[in-house]
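So, who can interpret the following?
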Amino acid sequence: ASSPEALRDAAKKCGFKNISHVVAVNRKISAFRSSNKVKEVIGVGHAEVPGMDREQRLRQWVETYSDAILRVCFLYLSDRAQAQDALQDTLIKAWKHMGNIERMGIQNEKAWLMKIAINTCKDYRRTSWFRHVDRSRALEDLPPQMMCVEPEDRAITGAVMELPDKYKQVVLLYYFQGLTQRETAQALGLTPSAVVRRLRAAEARLRQALMGGEADEE
């Protein structure tokens, strides 16, 4: 089935839950800070972040959100290596613009990070490599700890990966990341009503893909 409940259940089961146990947070931080891209960024002056050291906040982001960002990037790009690169680029951009959290009064850091991740994935999809990605093999190429347990859950996740971008985005943020409709709208630059319409259209497309029903456009 492709009901909202089934989507939420599949999202939970396909949540890359064990990545943190495979790759320690300190190793992620070390790899992140030692990359050439990061060295260029860290050397540039930044506004101070009141109440929390910059590296402390970065460590908190990696520990709390890196698995979720990686999941979104993988389901958006259908390529594990590119998803890992997109995760790193997302953290680099977030590091570079960390001062915006206080300057712009950002209340939900997760929604802000997801917005950066989605925009990063959009940039990746504009490049020539994306045309050669075999999305039909994407789930099979994942390590066991990243794969969904039940065939039905994998089928739903595979169908989500095949959605057009405007529907995939709202499904990933609302169902897979647990953002509210308002937070999803803010992350994507949409109105809440537009998010609702896209979610309904996405659910209809998923029903069509999984059960042969008819899909309605937004």
Observations:
- Confidence is low (pLDDT under 50) at residues 15-26, 41-51.
- Residues 53 and 111 are 21 Å apart (CA to CA).
- The longest helix spans residues 54-77.
